[in-house]
Automatic annotation (TrEMBL):
GO terms for molecular function: 4 iron, 4 sulfur cluster binding; carbon-nitrogen lyase activity; magnesium ion binding; S-adenosyl-L-methionine binding. It comes from Luteimonas chenhongjianii. It comes from the Bacteria. Its EC number is 4.3.99.3. This is 7-carboxy-7-deazaguanine synthase. NCBIfam families: rSAM_QueE_gams (TIGR04349). The keyword Magnesium applies. Its cofactor is Mg(2+); [4Fe-4S] cluster; S-adenosyl-L-methionine. One of its GO terms (biological process) is tRNA queuosine(34) biosynthetic process. [4Fe-4S] cluster binds at C45, C49, C52. Residues 32-222 form the Radical SAM core domain.
């Protein structure tokens, strides 16, 4: 192999990410809920949350260049793009993908577990940061340093599995003043508590958070690619 060909192969490898799927659907949660959105789901995740609904993204997947990802995104003809996983930041080249999507004029969100450093993410991206509750089994992985990096453009999400989970989450919101930093979202964990229970607790406490149900679960019941 010539030096030029070798450099070309190395450049191509450096521009690739492993993807589980790219698909068009409705955004089911967070600030952009209801908008037609292209989802770019990266493969792999270092966490194993008890309520995970995308375990199929832990392994497998196919290698895509960033140019191929952008071409596929463009083919769907919508302006909202959500980069998700798995845990997308587990692949370091995700940072470059996010930047390229922003440069292309898309309204970009990133769904991240909150266990990895978000500091290098392009500030044009709305970072939807999970805070893992005790019932998730991964609360010890929360990277609390990320909270200081959040702006009003970002969002914080709690998936609540029980009354104890709710009280823990409520106390985190209030003691850390998260409602003053960005939108805070509470979701019920499917099969653990009902939406009505969580809604009643939020109302009773006048908690300064947004209640949300995941639209994609209501419409398509966790069907992959929807």
């Amino acid at each position: 192999m010539t030096a030029i060909a070798s450099d070309a192969v190395a450049a191509s490898a450096a521009d690739r990410l492993k993807l589980t799927e790219i698909f068009l659907s409705l955004q089911g949660e967070a600030r952009d809920a209801g908008w037609p959105t292209v989802f770019v789901r990266l493969t792999g995740c270092p966490l194993r949350c008890s309520y995970c609904d995308t375990a199929y993204a832990f392994h497998g997947g196919d290698w895509w260049t960033v140019d191929a990802i952008l071409a596929e995104v463009a083919s769907h003809g919508v302006r909202h793009v959500c980069v998700t996983g798995g845990e997308p930041l587990a692949q370091k080249r995700c940072i470059g993908l996010l930047r390229r999507l922003c440069d292309a004029g898309y309204q970009v969100s990133l769904e991240t577990s909150g266990a990895l450093d978000i500091g290098a993410v392009d500030p044009r991206v709305s970072r939807v940061l999970d805070i893992k509750t005790p019932a998730s089994g991964e609360a010890h992985r929360n990277r609390w340093e990320n909270l200081a990096l959040l702006t009003a453009h970002d969002q914080i999400k709690f998936v609540v599995c029980s009354r104890a989970d709710y009280e823990w989450s409520r106390d985190i919101v209030l003691t850390k003043g998260l409602q003053h930093r960005c939108d805070v979202l509470f979701s019920p964990s499917k099969g653990e508590i009902t939406g009505r229970e969580l809604a009643d607790w939020i109302v009773a406490d006048r908690l300064p958070v947004k209640f949300q149900m995941q639209l994609h679960k209501l419409l398509w019941d966790d069907e992959p690619g929807r």
